[in-house]
Write a structure and sequence with these properties.
The chain is α+β, with helices and mostly antiparallel strands and 440 residues long. It is 47% helix and 13% strand. It folds into three domains: 7-120, Orthogonal Bundle (Butyryl-Coa Dehydrogenase, subunit A, domain 1); 123-130 and 167-271, Butyryl-CoA Dehydrogenase, subunit A, domain 2 (Beta Barrel); 274-419, Butyryl-CoA Dehydrogenase, subunit A, domain 3 (Up-down Bundle). The chain has 13 helices and nine strands. Residues 286-419 form the Acyl-CoA dehydrogenase/oxidase C-terminal domain. Keywords: FAD, Flavoprotein, Oxidoreductase.
């Protein structure tokens, strides 16, 4: 097996790195996140037109580039290096693959070409704080207990099982859907929706059917005929409010849906929505891992450069063995995380079953590497590194923010271990025989 990148993949990486290096310095990023959109629309348009970034992994028949997850992971790694604020994750990582997997041919023809060209942006909206559950990263997903509505036993893929109630389970909370003649209507609230205040299309996970036929379906909302009103309100009962986030480079929003008309994504309400979400989750985990690796590598590079310039006791700080050991530990963590990320990206296309475990483990490894790299960057930059305005804090906030949005790390690992069958059911209840203590 040849694990090196092809000439084409290397060209994608170099082209994107050159563009972002020129237009996404730390000051550029800080200026972009303070705009109303939360990202540089002009830069996003250039990335879409010149490099085909949002359509990199979409099929050529829908005006995409036709590459795979590995190529998209390369793009995410370069975006992570500069902490690029953009709708890339929401559009290319979450919404577009779900439309491609579940949408009717008419829906694909209508949505995928403008998403690939950057003309439209989209995102996935689920109940507050439930994104890692919905994507099967920290639980939920397709696993349902025996006898549960839509379950198929241990590790099954029953239609619509919303593990741990992440979509509401027909009770209060979450997002609900009801049929009104030929139209579906959505009501409820979603929080921490990536780029939710600006996305042109919303893929909304909503619960329907009540307890007797409990299931979670995906719906398309946010049609072009709805012109936004003041304060994020539009005439169809949808209210969007940008939320304050620890990581400003990852914009999130709260959505309030009040009888919002929507269209079912797909042919019927019998689609395997849970399976599609879990498959998308494995891919998203690989992309997020690559993005975190890029951020960690950039933080490490900045720190190494600074320690060669800053002097203490008449010599560069980087010449001290203790500092070298700390930086070496970060380097090993970053390289390990990068290998795991690209294995998960390869598996997302070549072996989807393996990807469901590899993605969560790769994301856990990458988030740990980023947290370590960002923490060492703050400390080894000395007094200037502890100032809130320093670029090192952008990486530190990204590490903490991603852990909150997609983790935490210990749950990612625990769920991956459970999925891989490392711990048999009931193993925790077994008693361990211990030798009797002998008095001496």
């Amino acid at each position: 097996m040849d694990a090196s990148f092809s000439e084409e993949q290397g060209a994608i990486q170099r082209a994107l790195r050159d563009v972002l290096a020129a237009r996404s310095e730390s000051d550029d990023v800080k200026a972009a996140v303070r705009t109303e959109a939360g990202y540089d629309k002009e830069l996003w348009g250039s990335l879409a037109r010149e490099l085909g970034l949002p359509g990199l992994a979409l099929p050529a028949e829908y005006d995409g580039v036709g590459c795979g997850t590995v190529e998209l992971a390369l793009a995410f790694e370069e975006a992570g290096r500069v902490l690029l604020p953009s709708p890339l994750l929401a559009t290319a990582g979450l919404a577009a693959p779900l439309v491609a997997a579940l949408g009717t041919e008419e829906q694909r023809r209508a949505l995928l070409p403008p998403l690939a060209s950057g003309e439209l942006t989209a995102t996935l909206a689920v109940a507050a704080g439930a994104l890692p559950l919905a994507l099967g990263l920290t639980g939920g997903g397709t696993t349902a207990p025996d006898g549960a509505p839509g379950g198929t036993g241990n590790g099954g893929t029953g239609n619509g099982w919303s593990g741990n109630g992440w979509s509401g389970d027909g009770r209060a909370g979450g997002i609900q859907a009801r049929r009104d003649g030929e139209v579906w209507r959505l009501y409820g609230e979603a929080a921490q929706v990536l780029n939710g205040h600006t996305a042109d299309r919303l893929v909304v996970a909503a619960h329907t059917g009540g307890f007797a036929r409990s299931r979670t379906l995906l719906f398309l909302a946010g049609h072009e005929e709805a012109e936004p009103h003041d304060r994020g309100r539009d005439p169809r009962g949808l209210v969007r409010v940008r939320q304050t986030a620890l990581d400003e480079t990852r914009t999130v929003a709260r959505l309030e849906l009040r009888d919002v008309p929507a269209v079912l994504l797909g042919e019927s309400d019998e689609a395997d929505v849970s399976g599609a979400l879990v498959r998308a989750g494995a891919r998203v985990a690989a992309l997020l891992a690559a993005e975190a690796v890029g951020a960690a590598d950039s933080a490490l590079g900045r720190t190494v450069e600074y320690t060669t310039l800053r002097e203490q006791f008449g010599r560069p700080v980087g010449s001290f063995q203790a500092v070298q050991h700390r930086l070496a530990d970060v380097y090993v963590q970053v390289r390990t995380a990068r290998s795991a990320a690209y294995y998960a990206a390869w598996a997302a296309d070549a072996d989807p079953g393996e990807a469901e475990t590899a993605g969560g483990l790769a994301l856990a490894q990458a988030l740990e590497a980023l947290r370590l790299a960002a923490g060492e960057a703050v400390q080894l930059h000395g007094g200037v590194g502890f100032t809130w305005e320093h670029a090192a804090h952008l990486y530190f906030k990204r590490a903490a923010g991603d852990d909150l949005l997609f983790g935490p790390v210990h749950r990612l690992r625990a769920h991956a271990a459970e999925r891989a069958g490392l711990f048999a059911r009931g193993a925790a209840d077994r008693t361990v025989e211990r030798p009797e203590r002998v008095a001496v």
